[in-house]
Amino acid sequence: MRQIFLVIALIAAPVAAFTSFELYANNAPAKAANLGDLSSFKAIVADVQTLASKGDLSAAAKRITDYETAWDQAETAIRPINPNDWNNIDTASDAALKALRQSPPSVDKVNKTLAALMAVLNNPAQPAR
Question: Does the keyword Signal apply (predicted)?
Fold first, then answer.
């Protein structure tokens, strides 16, 4: 009788361990794909931030158009990689564009939206705040 319990235990333990691992592996959240090199976008946003911090909002508005054009051109390549992260950046981008194109633009709002855009470019998985 003792041998039967031993056999059952020796069979059940590895089966339980393997099954638990399989359940965990299949239910673990998948790691999101990296959007690639976003440094060109960050460089443009940094330029816009510099212009805005100097109070030259008209130049900042013109420079953000370069960002908008580059972002729109890259959409077909970037968006399919990770649509959620792309959307986080796109939402922050839209807010910055809107703030700069407002008539008249608010320096405080422009600076906040540009900072939020840069934060999302640095960490696309985090939505803009």
Answer: yes
